Amino acid sequence: MHVVISPNAFKHSLSGLEVANAIKAGLEESNIDATYFIFPVADGGEGMLEILVNHWQGTYRQVAVLDPLLRPITATFGLVNQGKTAVIELAQASGLKHLTSTEPDPLQASTYGTGQLVKAALDAGVQEILIGVGNSATVDGGTGLLQALGVQFYDEQDQQLPPGAASLRQLARIDLTELDSRLETCEITVVCDVDNPLLGPKGAAFVFGPQKGADEKAVVLLENALTNLAQIIQQQFNKQIAHLPHGGAAGGTAAGLAAILNAKLVPGTEYILQKTNFRELLNNADLLITAEGGLDEQTLAGKGPYGVAKLAKNLKIPVVALAGQMPVDLNLKDFHYFDAVFPIGTGPVPLTEAIAHTAVNLKRTACQVGKLLLLPVNTRKT
After folding, report:
1. Which tens digits make up the pLDDT trace of 130-169?
2. Which fold has domain 48-269?
3. CA 167/CA 162 separation, integer angstroms
4. Closest CA to 96 of 219, 212, 268
5. Is 3.40.50.10350 the CATH number for 2-39+276-374?
6. Measured distance CA(30)–CA(250) in Å, rounded
């Protein structure tokens, strides 16, 4: 049996490679006779940088940048294609991982640090930039990123606005005079982990604001801020971004970059699987095992495990999914690309404890999957 192991990273716990290795260790412990091919998947969030740089045998660069609350940190981006293409993860500079449990504040959080990574890539002489925008701490419509590249945002008193979403409610004018001229000849692709629009009940504020620390009042303020940003962009540049597919990714960063930098927005999982020739890897597979920290309705919006499962099922390859957690009311009929789903938890424990034991739980569950595959089929006649 040839098994392809293609999981997502588990947030705040394990990288995609670590998840895959834990699953492989469990299968080996079951004594199943199999060969394995490990290929972590990403959807534009954490893991994309490692996957693409390793696949294309690129190099890494470290840069001093600012985190979502504008504190100094060091972030990493990749160079591939003989240094002509940069691979950037927004989460490296502007992700929730940089904030403690009490710090998330989407009204103030900024993508400025990601803009610094873009500037560093331009300094390296790249001609193309891929920006994966998952796992952000921000809902600023990408304005912080743009500020780092020279875009200036003004209120009605002609005062420059500070970074962060809160100030966008006062936005009256956008000035592109100082925008880095090197962007004119640099192709930018935004690799999106979701297909949500910028505004509305399925938009950046209402769907993702609460995940980033916004209460009900803050969600309304964020929606108003992004609405004003969209209106100003339409007035000045005659571009409509309110309902742009994928525009709500990373708190509207995708929409902002599409409007100001003419960035191309692409569905993350589909893009990454295509660029890494994942379909060819499945040609000789007998089983695909994928995994995700939280299997829920958002998985169906284009997350990595859904993408690999869909591709495998189209090739008539069975799919098993392991999940860190699942909602009690999850309707598994909607997950028809998965032949079987196994939660890895052992019981009601605090999230911190579950995260700490992720590798152990993955290995144990994968071992049980392997033992299940070893069970003989009962052929006795009645």
Report:
1. 999 988 999 999 999 999 999 999 999 999 999 999 999 9
2. Glycerate kinase, domain 2 (3.90.1510)
3. 7
4. 212
5. yes
6. 40
